[in-house]
Amino acid sequence: MSGSLNLYSSYNFVDKDPVIDLMRTVSEKQEISIPRIAAASGVSEGTIRNWFYGKTKKPQFATVAAVMAAMGYRVDWRRQEGAAILSAREMMDRVIKTIGKAKP
């Protein structure tokens, strides 16, 4: 059981975080029960059930990473080709520019 999980940089979800469906699909395909995931990850069964059955819509990153690691996946941090490292000022200028474009 190994692989990598590519998390999105931004996603505006309405109903629930799509990573929940990914986690549920992985657990079903690998036939890993919620109690087994909880025992291996340290995340409570209740938390995992709340994700899988719709009570929780936005899981925390650390708990998602723990559950996916328990199922054989890891967070894979990669730098995008050609990505620039911005200073705080440059980043703020981009944000302000973007906000300015969004206003009518």
Largest sheet, strands/sense/barrel: 2 strands, parallel
Shape: elongated
Q: Classify the beta-strand content into a percent band.
A: 5-15%
Compute the number of helices: 5
Number of strands: 2
Unreliable stretches (pLDDT < 50, length at least 5) are none
Using the 3D structure, state the CATH architecture. Orthogonal Bundle
Helix content: 40-55%
Q: For the CA atoms, what is the radius of gyration?
A: 17 Å
What is the ordering of alpha helices and beta strands?
A: EHHHHEH
Strand order of the largest sheet: 1-2
- At the fold tier of CATH, the topology name is 434 Repressor (Amino-terminal Domain)
Rounded mean pLDDT is 79
| Tally of separate domains | 1
Name the CATH class.
Mainly Alpha
How far apart lie the N and C ends?
Answer: 50 Å
Structural class by sheet pairing and helices: mainly alpha
